Amino acid sequence: MLSEVQILEKIYAGFIGKAIGVRLGAPVEPTIWSYERIQKTYGEVTQYLRDFKNFAADDDTNGPVYFIRALRDYGLNATAADVGKTWLNYAAEEHGMYWWGGFGVSTEHTAYRNLRAGIPAPQSGSIAQNGAPVAEQIGGQIFIDSWGWVNPGNPAKAAQMSAMAASVAHDGDGLNGARFCAAAIAAAFEASSIDEIVTAGLGTIDAGSTYARVAQAVIDFFKVNPDDWRACRDMLTAEWGYDRYPGVCHIIPNAGVTVMAILYGKGDLPRTVEIATMAGWDTDCNAGNAGAIVGTFQGLQPGWDKYRKPINDFLVASGIVGSINIVDIPSFARELTVLALQLAGREVPALWLEDMTRRGVRFDFDLPGATHGFRTEGFNQISLKGGTERHTEDSRGSLEIQLDRLERGQGGRVFWKPFYRRSDFDDERYRPMFTPLVDGGQKVSFKLWLDPWNGDGNLRIAPYVRRTLSGAIEETGAWDVPSGEGWQHYEFVVPEGDEAIDEIGISIEYFGRLKYLGRLFLADFTIGGAGRTALLPAKEIQEWGAISRFTYNRGHWTKQSDRIHGHTAGDADMWTGHYYARDLSVTADVRRLSGTSQLVTARVQGTGRFYAAGFDSDEVVILKEDFGSTVLARAPFAVETGKSYEFKFALEGEWLVFSIDGKVQLEATDSAYAYGMSGIRLASAGRISVGRIEIVETA
Length: 699
Hints:
Blueprint (H helix, E strand, L loop, with lengths): L3 H22 L9 H8 L16 H8 L3 H4 L6 H11 L16 H10 L10 H4 L1 H4 L3 H4 L2 H5 L5 H12 L6 H16 L5 H9 L7 H15 L4 H12 L10 H15 L3 H10 L4 H16 L6 H7 L2 E3 L9 E3 H15 L6 H6 L5 E3 L11 E4 L3 E6 L10 E9 L4 E6 L26 E12 L4 E9 L5 E3 L12 E6 L7 E10 L5 E13 L3 E4 L6 E2 L2 E2 L3 E3 L2 E5 L2 E6 L3 E5 L7 E12 L1 E8 L4 E8 L2 E8 L2 E8 L7 E9 L2 E6 L2 E7 L7 E6 L3 E12 L2
Antiparallel strand pairs: 1-2, 3-13, 4-7, 5-6, 6-13, 7-12, 8-11, 8-13, 9-10, 9-12, 14-30, 15-16, 17-20, 18-19, 19-30, 20-29, 21-26, 21-30, 22-23, 22-29, 23-24, 24-25, 26-27, 27-28
Helix pairs in contact: 1-17, 1-18, 1-20, 11-12, 12-13, 12-18, 14-15, 14-16, 15-16, 16-17, 16-18, 17-18
């Protein structure tokens, strides 16, 4: 039986493999890029085809990050209907998450519209509902990797759970793709060969299915021509090409490419994703699926470095939860490991369980080569890598900061980013949205150990934070010379302010006379505690389709006269704050401009699960939303259009209290939601104007 650490390391490797494949294949996606055009332009692909400032979101990684949350929201026995609710709960309509290519064209768009119309899963994705061309597109397999990772060594269970999850949008061979890829990942934890993995995957689907037949055709060709993948690709073009299968991106031709890349890659991740990319058709999907399978099988290798280093343990998602959209890959791998242990009925380490709903971050650098997304800025003599040479009692590794021949006056910054803006990206893939992971009042702590090799000892550091709009650096402690005799503890409280923070780290400066060569080790980086957020619309900007520091779903959100203006013909929401914020108060300056609904929301766990309080016609209400509204309290209130009211919605444990202009209007109790984001909501057609918003966490 695999140990918990072995499972964690395999999942980590597999997820990095997935991320590498998606990033490599994304620049040459169809339909503009063809197999022939890729070959003519790039020849042999042996490196990333594009340097990204930061790689934005992709549907291939959105799905594995978000859909597995059905097991957290609805329990380990979650059904297809539960996964359907998960789709609705975490996706913003017609931006982010999926390819919104139109109803009847995009499988995911079609399924989403079905779900919104009240058609539950699995009917929402069935051939009977949508027809085979829609139900058998590639999405059946590209979102399902996590269902394999949470079933290590159990291909049958992985196939069953992945088909259940994929049935939200797919049917027929779309489900066979889900079964094959998830089962192959599950088998890859313990398999001794690639052949064993492919056999295990095919063992979970009907041998007479078209999916099984295209896979077998590739297997048979490989046996005769084991060193000529391009000949195999020609066979697929002739016998299994796009011309034979309807729709934009059918699963069958791409299944052939995926199996081909796995076999011809011969167990080496880089070669596997390179073949999948050079083969054309749906390049990011195929390279991502093949990379997840082979990455899980092979485990982390030094030969991955040219592809792994730019990933830097960091991934962007584009659901509606801004704090989940900033994905720390080691932390996400740990979450999947917890689910894997729970599904197997095994004991879960208490600290890992605590991490699942942590209001903050805990970076232990335990995983081989883990960097947790730390970066450098300044002179290029500072570089980073994860290592095991130095570690604390509570971890297996640390971040090694290499300082190469610094001269007097030279230095730089080493930091982690808790927030991103549009300017941090140079592409628009699946438009992500972000809310800060860290707020004022939270405590940051970490340990440092200096290892000087050359110099006269005059190297010093100061902890700092940076404000995102102004770029202002705020030192949060005195300059200090780190100890060279062992670990030295540092901590500070994040200063409050009216701008979000987008860097937390240390400034490094050398002021000696001899060139400085050495290392600085960083370990046990944590941020926690209750935060405080003050949002002044005048200090925010419009970007990503709404307002900075907010995510949104539906409606038109703009800045007008230093206020946030919301306008919708239906319902619409904007959210900010951390997903795991618990007891708190939300205060907002709210004006009704038209319509009957103006609300503040709290403990928001998605588009369909939250508490809300505010105006509903000529009443004040406290509502609970769980894919349908329940009124917890209500009272008459004569609302004046255009007048500013100070809303305050306070939540402590089960108690919910709503006040206007300092006077308590309503109280209620409910225990459905213990944590969540905060925001502004219009539950029906109308307009709203919002001024200052403050979120004060008390626990």
